[in-house]
Amino acid sequence: MNAACLASKILQNPNDLNFEADQETELESSLVFVQSESSDHLETIPEPYLSQICKLAEKVNDSIKSLHDDYTSQKITEDAFLKSCKIGKGIYDQMYEYLFELESEAMTSSDHEKLFEELANLRKTLQDIQKQISDLDIEFEIVTPPEEYANIESKLSPSSFIAMIESAISYLIYGDGERREHEKWKILRYDALLENARRTICYYINTKIMSKRVPKEFASTSLSKTLSHFANKELKEWEKQIFSLLPPLIINLDEIPPSENQLGYLRAKYNTFLKAMRTAVKWSEANQMDEGAFHLDALCALTFTDFDLNDCCETVVDTFIRLGSEALKRKPENEDKKYSNLLSHLSVKDEEIRAAPRTAKTPLTHQLLKSANGHLNGFLGLYQFDPIMQSNPRHVLYTKIVSFKGKDSPKKIINIAMGTPTIESGYCEADTNPEIKAFLRHYQRKGLKHYYGNRQDFYPKTLLEGDESVRCHAIHNLATLFKGTFYAVTLTYNSPFYYQKYLTYKNKTLPELKDEIFTVLTKSRSRHSIDFLPDSLFSLNPDLSNWIENELERLANEYKDTFQIQSRGGQFINEFHTSLQNYVDGWTKESKIKIGYTRYAPRITDFKTQLLNQLFDLPPEVSGNYIPEVIVDQLNLRNWCIKLIEQTHKIVFHNKKYLDGKSRRVFVNTVYIFIDDYNIINLDANSSNFTCKDGVDRSVASNSKDYSAKAINNKVERTPDVIKFFSTMLFSRALITHKRPIIRERFEQTEEFTQFYLQNRDELIELYETMFPGIEITLDLFLAKNK
Asked: Where is mean pLDDT largest: 496-510, 596-610, 681-695?
């Protein structure tokens, strides 16, 4: 009898967990037994079988308690938990019935005493839960059993009985319905991470340390031989560090403890591996002159450059789309590949992923706490924000291939997905983690270069606002520690200039518009407001708020008779901003004040000037951006950007005098992408990453826009596999890291950018040809898909 049938029979029975005083079974028709090997009535149960049954009773009790913890923490639904309790109750009844109907001669043995003690513990656990269920006034769902098992009545031998109970426990722990389905993708994730670690580390040890030739795709199968290399010999300290990485990679599902399931087992294995790797690279950092430091740093570097989770990510995204479509009760979308492009069905997929049951994701409270931990830079020393140790995997997204006219060998640049490589404890201090330093030490030894595209915000904030500047400083400090190896550029996705919001006068009276401007500038005081004045201005001039109020009143008197005339509202806004800028310039030398750039429908000349200032002139504490002078000077980047801005205006936007908010956002993102490409090519980087705090929202939007721009420029935006990977990349990182969908705002930004260039492909191609003459930029995925 399989686990599903057994569970069905248990679940068909009464709607409660009540226990009769005389201990007679209540499940008289619940679980019928298959024919035993012997028809003779058993008189005793051999001691070894009693011991096994005792362990099974203990496992059921521990499992029920573990499931109860999952239920209270919202990891499983009420329905799934109640069904599990029912199965546990059924197992209890069958154990009790089976044992008492036997004429055992060993009832006083220690195994019997232990067994009935465990059964009593299980009974108490279920009774305690029943009290809670009664308080909640919840009834059990009754499930009808398969008909073919309805009339079988006989007794099992001890071995068959144990096998049946083990099957029931397997169903109890893993389930085959909602719970199991919602855990499959998480199991797949950890399995993929551990397999990557096995393959990568075993291959390195076999080829670099043991000097053997092992095909990379078969390296993980040689783990036992790799372990034997370290056995029965006196190990050096660095060899001990490497050896410590291997045991967590050995997977044996028979090791799963009674209170755990496969997911918990694999998660614990991966976390043990992470801890072993951190210990190893800390040893390496402290013993740089030791011969083994080279190997340890190289092994750590491979966890950045050799982990491939793309197949796993695709399966995870497909799973959520299916779960969401089932929840919405809709049939899978039939994609017409002939007419598909990068955005085909993308909004539908986003809707379905968001509709997937919450039990497949992290509970909302956990999502908020996890996000808050990073937002608050750790909890005041009580809890660290350390993404690399907190289920935030790093893996290769794709490889950028740059071909130069007249040269045979193209340049390959690995693009890595990752969270911020920093550690914080909530005291406005951050340090880079040992793993990124080991990665860069390896690069330094090998003469390699890494380009870090930072998508965090250099603008300093309070703790509650989520200050990212401390992480930005820590990341840029790596460029000093690893000069010539590590290059970092911060281009923020969070500044008011990036958002390009602006006031509109449409459908507003003059008093309403005047009050809105005053509120935004003096009361909202949020950096994400439409307009923004730094706190320093109000500190320098306490009378600033009064001046703003008086100036708005003065202009309102001038415009009151003509405000309803078309465009006069826009002129009112522009004139006020000009007056405000002149006023500020008149009493402070702080000319790099960030005001005025969000004014209504700005002229393109103003916008282009502001864009250049945001990138190169304003302090990072004001703009949120930071391009180090060493990069600007070495690459003549400012002059190149002046050309880029002019050519983008000319080619993409056809020299329009005014651009709306959407067009300006596309303009900014285009400049970001081209700056990164220019830097990567001219710094001769071997790898890159574009990372925000967690690498799941801003980072994903950045990578996805870069991918869509390259796909459109290479004319593969209609290729089905290219389209498939685009949606996988856009949705998967938030799912596998935070177990939630990507933030909608970042999804919409990506959609906006991609839609624009799908409609303006020729302009994008011309811009690439103009800014990168004689250079072709593509991705390995495009080449593979076109073979």
From this structure: 681-695
Crossing angle (nearest 10°) for helices 698-713 and 761-771: 90
The rounded distance, in Å, linking the Cα atoms of 318 and 316 is 5
CA–CA distance, 200 with 308 (Å, rounded to integer): 10
Amino acid at 236: K
Backbone angles phi, psi at 81, to 5 degrees: -70, -45
Structural tokens at position 419? 């969270």
Q: Is pLDDT at 643 greater than 60 in this prediction?
A: yes
**Does residue 668 contact residue 497 with C-beta atoms inside 8 Å?**
yes
Sign, CA torsion 375/379/385/391: negative
| C-alpha angle 273-276-278 in degrees, rounded to nearest 5 | 110
Query: Both tokens of residue 652?
Result: 């993409």
The pair of structure tokens assigned to 33 is 């037994």
Whether the Cβ atoms of residue 421 and residue 433 lie closer than 8 Å to each other? yes
Q: How many angstroms separate the CA atoms of 388 and 423, rounded?
A: 9
Q: How far apart are CA 345 and CA 361, in angstroms?
A: 22
How far is residue 709's CA from residue 662's CA, in Å, rounded to a whole number?
17
pLDDT bin (cut points 50, 70, 90) of residue 105 is very low
Give CA–CA dist 446/448, Å, rounded. 5
Residues contacting residue 487 through CB under 8 Å, at least 6 positions apart: 449, 450, 451, 452, 479, 628, 631, 679, 683, 685
Tell whether the model's pLDDT for residue 183 goes beyond 60.
yes
Q: pLDDT digits over 442-488, tens only?
A: 999 999 999 999 999 988 877 666 789 999 999 999 999 999 999 99
In 3D, which of 781, 787, 783 has the Cα closest to residue 725?
Answer: 781
52-89 confidence digits (pLDDT tens): 778 788 888 888 888 888 777 766 667 777 777 777 77
How far is Cα 363 from Cα 75, in angstroms, rounded to an integer? Answer: 6
Relative to beta strand 486-490, strand 430-432 is: unpaired
d(CA 398, CA 343): 20
Closest-CA residue to 132 (of 72, 179, 66, 59): 72
| Residue 687 backbone dihedrals phi, psi, to 5 degrees | -155, 165
For 291, counting Cβ atoms within 10 Å of its Cβ (0-12 exposed, 13-18 middle, 19+ buried), the class is exposed
Angle at 668 between CA 667 and CA 673, to 5 degrees: 100
Q: Are β-strands 395-404 and 430-432 bridged in parallel, bridged antiparallel, or unpaired?
A: unpaired
pLDDT at 11: 41
Instruction: Please tell me the predicted confidence (pLDDT) of residue 31.
Output: 28
What pLDDT is attached to residue 527?
55
Phi-psi region of 772 (alpha: psi -120 to 50; beta: other; left: phi over 0): beta
Residue 236 CB partners (closer than 8 Å, separation 6+): 292
**Cα(611)–Cα(668) distance, integer angstroms:** 8
pLDDT tens-digit readout, 676-685: 999 999 999 9
- pLDDT value, residue 213: 64
At 417 the pLDDT is: 97
Asked whether the beta carbons of 691 and 729 are under 8 A apart, the reply is no
Give the whole-number percent of the chain exceeding pLDDT 90: 43
Do 297 and 284 meet the contact criterion of CB atoms below 8 Å apart?
yes
Structure tokens at 119: 């059964």
